[in-house]
Fold this protein.
Amino acid sequence: MKPAIRCQCCKGTGVTVKQQKQCCCTKPCSKCQGILRSPSGYCINCQKNASRRYHAKIADKNQACSICGKCDRNTSGRCRTCCKRTSANRKLNPCPVCNQSDWTDAGMCRTCHNARKIQNWALYIISTAISHSRARNHEMPSIDEKWVMDKFELQKGRCYYTHVELDPTKIGTRSPYLPSLDRIDNKLGYTPENTQLTSLAWNQARNVRSIETTKEFFRKTSEYIERCKLSS
Protein backbone atom coordinates (compact mmCIF):
# COMPACT_ATOMS: atom_id res chain seq x y z
CA MET A 1 0.00 0.00 0.00
CA LYS A 2 1.41 3.37 -1.06
CA PRO A 3 1.81 5.97 1.66
CA ALA A 4 -0.63 8.87 1.57
CA ILE A 5 0.70 11.99 -0.13
CA ARG A 6 0.87 14.87 2.27
CA CYS A 7 1.38 18.54 1.63
CA GLN A 8 4.26 20.53 3.14
CA CYS A 9 2.29 21.55 6.23
CA CYS A 10 1.39 17.90 7.03
CA LYS A 11 4.89 16.41 6.68
CA GLY A 12 6.50 15.45 9.98
CA THR A 13 3.54 16.57 12.08
CA GLY A 14 1.98 13.15 12.77
CA VAL A 15 -1.28 14.15 11.04
CA THR A 16 -3.33 11.11 10.07
CA VAL A 17 -4.98 10.69 6.67
CA LYS A 18 -8.38 11.25 8.28
CA GLN A 19 -7.22 14.52 9.80
CA GLN A 20 -5.56 15.47 6.55
CA LYS A 21 -9.01 15.87 4.92
CA GLN A 22 -9.45 19.03 6.95
CA CYS A 23 -6.01 20.34 5.94
CA CYS A 24 -5.24 22.94 3.30
CA CYS A 25 -3.81 20.24 0.98
CA THR A 26 -7.32 19.06 0.09
CA LYS A 27 -8.43 22.56 -1.02
CA PRO A 28 -7.73 23.75 -4.59
CA CYS A 29 -4.95 26.17 -5.40
CA SER A 30 -6.15 29.78 -5.71
CA LYS A 31 -4.25 30.16 -8.99
CA CYS A 32 -4.50 26.91 -10.99
CA GLN A 33 -7.23 25.08 -9.00
CA GLY A 34 -4.85 22.14 -8.44
CA ILE A 35 -4.59 20.25 -5.14
CA LEU A 36 -1.68 19.83 -2.70
CA ARG A 37 -1.36 23.51 -2.05
CA SER A 38 0.85 25.03 0.62
CA PRO A 39 -0.38 27.10 3.60
CA SER A 40 0.08 30.27 1.46
CA GLY A 41 -2.99 29.31 -0.60
CA TYR A 42 -1.06 28.29 -3.74
CA CYS A 43 0.34 24.97 -4.93
CA ILE A 44 4.12 24.51 -4.97
CA ASN A 45 4.51 25.35 -8.69
CA CYS A 46 2.41 28.53 -8.50
CA GLN A 47 4.26 29.62 -5.38
CA LYS A 48 7.61 29.19 -7.16
CA ASN A 49 6.40 31.20 -10.16
CA ALA A 50 5.12 34.00 -7.91
CA SER A 51 8.45 34.08 -6.10
CA ARG A 52 10.28 34.22 -9.44
CA ARG A 53 8.20 37.20 -10.60
CA TYR A 54 8.72 38.98 -7.27
CA HIS A 55 12.51 38.65 -7.45
CA ALA A 56 12.47 39.84 -11.08
CA LYS A 57 10.53 42.93 -9.99
CA ILE A 58 13.02 43.59 -7.20
CA ALA A 59 15.90 43.19 -9.65
CA ASP A 60 14.30 45.75 -11.98
CA LYS A 61 13.92 48.20 -9.09
CA ASN A 62 17.61 47.84 -8.32
CA GLN A 63 18.48 49.10 -11.80
CA ALA A 64 19.16 52.78 -12.31
CA CYS A 65 16.54 55.27 -13.52
CA SER A 66 17.13 56.34 -17.13
CA ILE A 67 16.88 60.06 -16.16
CA CYS A 68 18.35 60.64 -12.70
CA GLY A 69 20.38 57.44 -12.25
CA LYS A 70 18.73 56.46 -8.96
CA CYS A 71 17.73 52.87 -8.23
CA ASP A 72 13.95 52.92 -7.63
CA ARG A 73 12.57 52.69 -11.14
CA ASN A 74 9.28 51.17 -12.37
CA THR A 75 8.44 49.28 -15.56
CA SER A 76 8.70 52.49 -17.62
CA GLY A 77 12.44 52.66 -16.87
CA ARG A 78 12.12 55.77 -14.69
CA CYS A 79 11.76 56.31 -10.94
CA ARG A 80 8.54 57.68 -9.47
CA THR A 81 9.96 61.16 -8.96
CA CYS A 82 11.01 61.46 -12.61
CA CYS A 83 7.65 60.10 -13.79
CA LYS A 84 5.80 62.78 -11.81
CA ARG A 85 8.21 65.48 -12.94
CA THR A 86 7.82 64.50 -16.61
CA SER A 87 4.02 64.50 -16.34
CA ALA A 88 4.02 67.90 -14.62
CA ASN A 89 6.40 69.42 -17.19
CA ARG A 90 4.24 68.14 -20.04
CA LYS A 91 1.15 69.81 -18.56
CA LEU A 92 3.06 73.06 -18.09
CA ASN A 93 4.27 73.08 -21.70
CA PRO A 94 1.90 74.83 -24.15
CA CYS A 95 -0.17 72.90 -26.66
CA PRO A 96 1.50 73.10 -30.11
CA VAL A 97 -1.87 74.02 -31.69
CA CYS A 98 -3.47 76.59 -29.36
CA ASN A 99 -0.67 77.30 -26.81
CA GLN A 100 -2.77 76.13 -23.85
CA SER A 101 -1.22 73.94 -21.15
CA ASP A 102 -3.67 71.05 -20.64
CA TRP A 103 -1.90 68.29 -22.55
CA THR A 104 -3.19 64.77 -23.15
CA ASP A 105 -1.36 61.64 -24.29
CA ALA A 106 -2.04 62.73 -27.88
CA GLY A 107 0.50 65.58 -27.52
CA MET A 108 -2.06 68.43 -27.53
CA CYS A 109 -4.73 69.90 -25.26
CA ARG A 110 -8.11 68.22 -24.88
CA THR A 111 -9.95 70.86 -26.91
CA CYS A 112 -7.63 70.49 -29.90
CA HIS A 113 -7.62 66.72 -29.55
CA ASN A 114 -11.44 66.59 -29.64
CA ALA A 115 -11.49 69.02 -32.59
CA ARG A 116 -9.14 66.74 -34.51
CA LYS A 117 -11.41 63.78 -33.72
CA ILE A 118 -14.40 65.65 -35.15
CA GLN A 119 -12.43 66.66 -38.23
CA ASN A 120 -11.32 63.06 -38.83
CA TRP A 121 -14.48 61.31 -37.56
CA ALA A 122 -14.54 58.87 -40.49
CA LEU A 123 -10.99 57.76 -39.72
CA TYR A 124 -11.97 57.42 -36.05
CA ILE A 125 -14.79 54.92 -36.72
CA ILE A 126 -12.53 53.03 -39.17
CA SER A 127 -9.96 52.61 -36.40
CA THR A 128 -12.74 51.33 -34.11
CA ALA A 129 -13.69 48.77 -36.77
CA ILE A 130 -10.04 47.66 -37.00
CA SER A 131 -9.94 47.12 -33.21
CA HIS A 132 -13.15 45.07 -33.32
CA SER A 133 -11.82 42.96 -36.20
CA ARG A 134 -8.62 42.17 -34.30
CA ALA A 135 -10.57 41.23 -31.17
CA ARG A 136 -12.80 38.83 -33.16
CA ASN A 137 -10.01 37.42 -35.37
CA HIS A 138 -11.75 38.70 -38.52
CA GLU A 139 -10.04 39.97 -41.63
CA MET A 140 -9.04 43.63 -41.62
CA PRO A 141 -11.68 46.08 -42.95
CA SER A 142 -11.53 46.65 -46.71
CA ILE A 143 -13.35 49.99 -46.40
CA ASP A 144 -11.53 53.28 -45.96
CA GLU A 145 -12.22 56.89 -45.01
CA LYS A 146 -13.33 57.80 -48.55
CA TRP A 147 -15.93 55.00 -48.53
CA VAL A 148 -17.39 56.27 -45.24
CA MET A 149 -17.60 59.87 -46.50
CA ASP A 150 -19.23 58.75 -49.77
CA LYS A 151 -21.80 56.73 -47.78
CA PHE A 152 -22.46 59.73 -45.54
CA GLU A 153 -23.13 61.98 -48.56
CA LEU A 154 -25.21 59.32 -50.34
CA GLN A 155 -27.46 58.88 -47.28
CA LYS A 156 -27.61 62.69 -46.81
CA GLY A 157 -26.14 62.39 -43.33
CA ARG A 158 -28.82 60.00 -42.06
CA CYS A 159 -28.89 56.49 -40.60
CA TYR A 160 -29.40 53.81 -43.24
CA TYR A 161 -32.19 52.02 -41.32
CA THR A 162 -33.87 54.63 -39.06
CA HIS A 163 -33.21 57.76 -41.22
CA VAL A 164 -32.24 59.65 -38.07
CA GLU A 165 -29.84 62.51 -38.73
CA LEU A 166 -26.28 61.57 -37.71
CA ASP A 167 -24.09 63.94 -35.71
CA PRO A 168 -20.32 63.43 -36.25
CA THR A 169 -19.56 66.33 -33.88
CA LYS A 170 -20.38 64.00 -30.95
CA ILE A 171 -17.45 61.74 -31.81
CA GLY A 172 -15.64 60.46 -28.74
CA THR A 173 -18.87 60.38 -26.69
CA ARG A 174 -21.66 57.77 -26.39
CA SER A 175 -24.30 59.86 -28.16
CA PRO A 176 -27.01 57.74 -29.90
CA TYR A 177 -26.67 59.95 -33.00
CA LEU A 178 -23.03 59.05 -33.59
CA PRO A 179 -22.17 57.49 -36.97
CA SER A 180 -21.36 53.80 -36.63
CA LEU A 181 -20.43 50.91 -38.92
CA ASP A 182 -22.93 48.04 -38.75
CA ARG A 183 -22.22 44.67 -40.39
CA ILE A 184 -25.11 42.96 -42.14
CA ASP A 185 -23.69 39.50 -41.41
CA ASN A 186 -21.85 39.50 -38.07
CA LYS A 187 -19.86 36.42 -39.07
CA LEU A 188 -18.10 38.40 -41.81
CA GLY A 189 -15.79 41.40 -41.64
CA TYR A 190 -16.18 45.06 -42.58
CA THR A 191 -16.44 44.93 -46.38
CA PRO A 192 -18.31 47.37 -48.70
CA GLU A 193 -20.96 44.71 -49.38
CA ASN A 194 -21.39 43.77 -45.69
CA THR A 195 -21.33 47.20 -44.00
CA GLN A 196 -23.88 49.98 -43.57
CA LEU A 197 -23.44 53.44 -42.04
CA THR A 198 -25.93 53.64 -39.17
CA SER A 199 -26.44 55.42 -35.88
CA LEU A 200 -24.77 54.13 -32.74
CA ALA A 201 -28.21 53.56 -31.16
CA TRP A 202 -29.22 51.22 -34.01
CA ASN A 203 -25.91 49.36 -33.96
CA GLN A 204 -26.03 48.76 -30.21
CA ALA A 205 -29.73 47.84 -30.22
CA ARG A 206 -29.25 45.33 -33.01
CA ASN A 207 -26.00 43.76 -31.72
CA VAL A 208 -26.19 40.11 -32.91
CA ARG A 209 -29.94 40.21 -33.68
CA SER A 210 -31.43 40.12 -37.14
CA ILE A 211 -32.31 43.33 -38.99
CA GLU A 212 -36.03 42.39 -39.14
CA THR A 213 -36.22 41.80 -35.37
CA THR A 214 -34.60 45.16 -34.63
CA LYS A 215 -36.88 46.99 -37.09
CA GLU A 216 -39.93 45.39 -35.46
CA PHE A 217 -38.72 46.52 -32.03
CA PHE A 218 -38.24 50.12 -33.20
CA ARG A 219 -41.65 50.09 -34.93
CA LYS A 220 -43.43 48.93 -31.75
CA THR A 221 -41.55 51.51 -29.70
CA SER A 222 -42.63 54.26 -32.11
CA GLU A 223 -46.27 53.10 -31.98
CA TYR A 224 -46.23 53.10 -28.18
CA ILE A 225 -44.85 56.65 -28.08
CA GLU A 226 -47.57 57.83 -30.49
CA ARG A 227 -50.27 56.23 -28.33
CA CYS A 228 -48.85 57.95 -25.25
CA LYS A 229 -48.98 61.31 -27.07
CA LEU A 230 -52.62 60.80 -28.07
CA SER A 231 -53.70 59.72 -24.57
CA SER A 232 -52.02 62.67 -22.85
Remarks:
- Residues 1-6 have pLDDT under 50 and may be disordered.
- The domain at 118-231 is CATH 3.30.40.220 (Herpes Virus-1).
